Amino acid sequence: xxxxxxxxxxxxxxxxxxxxxxxxxxxxxxxxxxxxxxxxxxxxxxxxxxxxxxxxxxxxxxxxxxxxxxxxxxxxxxxxxxxxxxxxxxxxxxxxxxxxxxxxxxxxxxxxxxxxxxxxxxxxxx
Length: 126
Ligand SMILES: [Zn+2]
Description:
It contains two helices and seven strands. It is an alpha+beta fold and 126 residues long. The strands form three sheets. The chain has a three-stranded antiparallel β-sheet with strand order 5-6-7. The chain has a two-stranded antiparallel sheet with strand order 1-4. Strand 2 and strand 3 (29-30) form a beta hairpin. The longest helix has 19 residues, at 48-66. The chain is elongated, with a radius of gyration of 21 Å. The mean pLDDT is 94. It binds zinc ion (ZN). Zinc ion is lined by residues 7, 9, 12, 33, 45-47, 50. Zinc ion (ZN) binds at residues 7, 9, 12, 33, 45-47, 50.
């Protein structure tokens, strides 16, 4: 059984829905949603609304923490890699594709799924 966690939306409890009501009949109160998994904010928010609420409160602080882009990033052949999969009857092939040079490099299905062959700038690393 997986661990329950709370939605990280700072206003989750203020969105008035039946499933957020907790407590005895005469003293119902809204509480933050708690689930084993969520679909928003990388699995940390219960809804798009709560994801947006989180971003409104913490988004600019996250930028300050991780650093703003202060110069344009430039697309070059070095950072133009994306992982792709070709669906062929009963025989899928996985490869990194450079969409500037059109070069293909074979990768494993695992790499396709976890992107460990690419860095977060789109460079091929292994
Ligand atoms: Zn929520």
